[in-house]
Write a structure and sequence with these properties.
heterodimer; A: alpha/beta; 10 helices; about 40% helix; about 15% strand; B: alpha+beta
């Protein structure tokens, strides 16, 4: 059973430490997105990275639309990995939508977790009666439309690679590495599960300490949203980053590493 | 070279690693109604629609950063006037961190794709509507089966355990009665009544044991068979009632009980009150005599999969997770599963019959929930139960 889970979620374990640290990727990518960050923690921690079912090199045959149309289905992936590896006192570093997935997991089995480090979290993307999530419903519908169009694009793009086109080795390489090239149908469902989610009521239930990392000028999770998360989640610390955009762990890895280290050093002196 | 950059029949743009515009060709600037110099140093996102900004951050940028290139990606640009310009974009990232992107407008192509997409969506919608009826029917059937299957599993479990008890414990007691009666019979009329008294004593104890055993078993087996209809039960009231019952039955009130506000759940009121009584009674039985018993109750609402026995069936619905923590004597975590079995007692010296936790498990499962216990010796135990707010039901098609 536990072997199945580790294979299903393409779980990778590195690091020389014992305190476990799980890195959960966000929407649109896979565990590769952590590759500028994890080496900095390998000396001190046990590093666990994985792909959600449907992403990266996970076992796509385990994808079940009813399960993954809800962020709780993704939270179950994290819990099943915790169970398979018998993890305790786990530090979760979660990007974007994974932040709320980690929150849901921590509510279900609090005893597995010690800290949540949330990069660009948002409990609700759509503006709602005084709440500023940053998006209108029509923006999200347009995004789903963009994804549908890129479905056409990707299908054409991936076709030669699937036919094992040897005169274009870069395509074969692309397939082998499959960076971020999630199945388009699954990616679209993940987009719906993500951008239509509303977990504002779950924030006050979180009892474990957390760090909210908020980028300057992040259009997906604007500053007000980070502030909202911090204000509604007990035992949280808010850290505003100089980094801009939504992916500081890719665009500004040094600052990202420094902030996580500072937080962990203060928690575990 | 510069001529080629400006006159190429496509939009060209170079960016630094944080996405700021370093250069833009005449064509692209003109299509977007900008003077090229106004755009130098601004973030490239300012040329995108909201949806494209999201897609850029979650797909295009990670592809460039991790894979150094992105090909044939559909994006929508926004002109200075606010008009939309659909383009096909490709980008490469050079070693020095410079990004070069090319955009080919696809207004005409886009119209064609629009039609394709809308045709596909119409077809999909028809298919969905058609299959929706079947889906609901199948889902109802599966849920029905799941509920029944679980009942069968639970009944079977009872049967196995019942058989075990009948064949061992009960027969053992009956054997004692028989043996001792036999002894009295053989001794009648020959010796003093002292041995007879002892034998009679044994009969008395064995009969008592038999009586208790049957009473407990009866209590256990009766759960889930009553005809009490499910109602909306206020768990706060159920907890208060359970507390009073602990006092009435055990005469014990020297403990503190603090609780989060509890929700209202659908279920059989008598059973749920019974459930809470046994949870409190369990804490009381295994309290640490060295300190005052403290019981705290924490409740969190969450969505949990309704399907408990069928693999690969998912329907997330509102549940409550209630954790009862005590500061009792606790036990080793190796026994966390064992203690839910009937008549299992970790310490034979305790007064309980080994029925409390199995009863708790049965009531919770009868309410389509799940329960587990976490314990640490010397620290205490936590009983965690997850109950659905509403009992699963079959929707009419």
């Amino acid at each position: 059973m536990s072997q199945n889970i580790l294979h299903r979620n393409n779980v990778k374990i590195t690091g020389k430490g014992t305190h476990p640290m799980l890195f959960a990727h966000g929407f649109g990518c896979d565990q590769n997105m952590w590759r500028f960050i994890t080496p900095a923690f390998e000396q001190q921690y046990r590093i666990i990275t994985f792909d959600y079912v449907g992403a990266g090199k996970s076992d796509v045959s385990a994808y079940h639309p009813d399960r993954y149309r809800n962020l709780n289905g993704y939270a179950q992936d994290i819990l099943e990995i915790c169970e398979a590896l018998e993890l305790r006192d786990l530090i979760v570093v979660a990007h974007s939508v994974s932040s709320m997935i980690a929150v849901l997991a921590a509510l279900k089995e609090p005893e597995y977790f010690s800290d949540l480090i949330l990069i660009g979290p948002s409990p609700c993307y759509i503006n709602d009666d005084g709440y500023k999530g940053g998006f209108e419903r029509k923006d999200i519908e347009e995004l789903l439309d963009t994804m549908d169009r890129n479905y056409i694009g990707w299908a054409n793009f991936l076709a030669p690679a699937i036919m094992k086109n040897d005169d274009r080795p870069e395509l074969t390489e692309e397939l082998k590495e499959s960076f971020c090239s999630t199945d388009p149908t699954i990616a679209r469902q993940f987009a719906e599960a993500t951008f239509f989610s509303d977990n504002r009521n779950d924030l006050p239930k979180v009892k474990i300490p957390s760090l909210v990392m908020q980028c300057s000028d992040d259009m997906i999770a604007p500053y007000e949203v980070g502030e909202y998360v911090h204000a509604h989640m007990p035992h949280s610390t808010l850290q505003v980053m100089a980094a801009t955009g939504h992916c500081p762990h890719m665009s500004h890895p040094e600052e990202t590493i420094a902030i996580i280290k500072d937080y962990l050093n203060s928690r575990y002196p | 070279m510069e001529l080629l950059f400006d006159e190429a029949p496509c939009g060209l743009i170079t960016l630094n690693d944080s996405g700021k515009i370093l250069a833009i060709n005449q064509n692209l600037a003109r299509w977007l109604n900008y003077d090229p110099v106004e755009l130098i140093g601004t973030p490239v996102e300012s040329l995108f629609t909201v949806a494209t900004k999201v897609f850029y951050s979650t797909h295009f940028f990670p592809l460039l950063k991790l894979h150094t290139r992105a090909d044939e990606v559909y994006l929508t640009l926004r002109t200075k006037r606010g008009d939309e310009l659909p383009v096909l974009a490709s980008g490469v990232r050079k070693d020095q961190g410079q990004i070069l992107c090319a955009f080919i407008p696809m207004r005409e192509r886009s119209k064609y794709e629009n039609e394709l997409l809308s045709a596909r969506r119409t077809a999909e919608k028809g298919l969905r509507e058609n299959s929706e009826v079947h889906r609901v029917m199948i889902e109802n059937r599966t849920r029905e089966l799941d509920v029944q299957y679980r009942k069968v599993l639970a009944m079977n479990d009872d049967l196995v355990q019942f058989t075990k008890i009948i064949s061992h414990d009960v027969q053992e007691s009956i054997r004692k009665i028989f043996f001792n009666t036999d002894l009295i019979a053989r001794q009648t009329g020959t010796t003093l009544p002292s041995a007879t008294t002892r034998a009679l004593d044994k009969i008395k104890r064995a009969t008592e044991q038999l009586y208790k055993l049957f009473r407990n078993l009866q209590e256990y087996l009766v759960i889930g068979t009553s005809n009490e209809p499910p109602t909306l039960v206020d768990l706060n009231a159920a907890l208060s009632k359970a507390r009073e019952e602990v006092f009435d039955r055990r005469g014990f009130s020297d403990f503190t009980l603090t609780s989060d506000p509890l929700p209202t759940v659908e279920g059989q009121q008598t059973e749920l009150e019974h459930l809470f009584y046994h949870v409190l009674d369990n804490a009381l039985q295994f309290r640490d005599p060295a300190r005052k018993l403290e019981i705290s109750v924490h409740a969190v609402l969450m969505e949990v999969n309704e399907y408990k026995a069928s693999p690969d069936q998912y329907k997330f619905s509102p549940h409550v997770r209630i954790a009862f923590s005590d500061n009792g004597i606790g036990f080793d975590r190796d026994y966390e599963g064992y203690v839910f079995d009937l008549l299992r007692k970790l310490d034979p010296a305790t007064t309980g019959a080994g029925m409390g936790l199995p009863l708790i498990k049965k009531v919770v499962e009868n309410h389509h929930g799940s329960v587990k216990i976490k314990s640490a010796p010397g620290k205490g135990s936590t009983i965690v139960m997850i109950l659905p707010l509403r009992l699963p039901r079959v929707d009419p098609v």
